[in-house]
Description:
Blueprint lengths: L1 H21 L4 E6 L2 E6 H56 L3 H20 L7 H18 L3 H14 L6 H17 L3 H9 L3 H4 L2 H13 L3 H13 L5 H17 L4 H10 L2 H4 L2 H13 L4 H13 L6 H12 L7 H13 L4 H13 L3 H14 L3 H17 L3 H13 L2
Antiparallel strand pairs: 1-2
Helix pairs in contact: 2-3, 2-4, 3-4, 4-5, 4-6, 5-6, 6-7, 6-9, 7-9, 9-10, 10-11, 11-14, 14-15, 14-16, 16-18, 17-18, 18-19, 19-20, 20-21
Amino acid sequence: MRAALWLLALFGIAVAVALFAGNNQGSVTLFWPPYRIDLSLNLVLLLLVAAFFVVYTAIRALSALFDLPQQALRWRTQQKERAMHASLLDSLSHLLAGRYIRARKSAEAVLEQEGSLTTSGHRPANAAQLRAIAHVLAAESAQALQDRAAREEHLRQALEQASARDAQETRDGALLRAARWALEDRDPDTAMKVLQGLPQGAARRTLALRTRLRASRQAGQPLEALETARLLSKHHAFSEVAAASILRGLAIDLLNGAYDLAQLQRAWACLEPGERLMPEVAIHAAQRLMALRGDPRVAREWLLPVWEAQAELGENLRVKLVCALEEGLDSIDGAWLARIEAAQKAHPRDATLQYLAGMACMKRQLWGKAQQLLTQSALGLHDGALHRNAWRALAALAEQREDASAAALAWKKAAGDV
């Protein structure tokens, strides 16, 4: 459609020119004494148009001629910039491929080319950010080559170049890399100091939180690591299974760091309700409490949610739960004894519950029932420690009723599991 309109316009112009030139009887007379030159008006107009085009073409040609040095300078600058960016890409490619010496040389070539351009008065766009990235790549290569002096120097220059407002993201990246290098050198204190230099927003990013988690674990700060892991879990940085495993391990580490009852109580108070309901955490806390000679009633209080869900636990956890409860059977109250008896009656063939109920009856001096339950459990227990304890208890019961043969047989059974 556009071509058709142009064609119609050209036809209109041609018709207008033909009508004007065909009927134009005008003339132009030039007096150049002693000469007189008569020219038609159409010829004069054509000569004027031709002169305009000749002058215009000459001006353009002269302009292009005088602009050649500037074009050559721009071309050379463009080639240098392309070579600089190519060196930057080469450095990154070599770094990803594990060719650290070449990556370092390419990064240094970027710095040299950028310096040459700046000296010549043609500073590239985002020059500070470009230099900062080149220094970070060189520092990364130096870290891989175990050249810490060069790494620190390139890091310092990278932070100086990235101090501008438009290079804040590059500065954050350089600090995160520096924290990771400190962790690789097993220097968590330095890593924590570097992370503290991040802005508040950058410090809450997933990568920064992951680095903080590693640093706090290396530094032996389980509470700091646990708080960081909670933030990562809220940000969905881990799968549900992985998050539960990490939180469980850190909670156990926090409990292991308590060396008296007051510290253990504070550590338990620092845990969130969901973490206290984890069977492994609650059982370990109760075992630590009993190891520190704490109140068995407090341990049973911590274990109550786990006991109520003990049917859902695996065999290993159920054995650990029974062992934790067994340590405080001397002061067991009637409510807990009723719970144990109800669970044993609900699962009469469960050897682990038979063992716990038998040991509870033994502590309560219910000798006959204790012997019956322990005898049944000794035949079905798979855990070696519980099996030995059951036979030892049976041997003690036999000695109490002065049955030497039964006691000797029970001791032999217990010794046979060692």
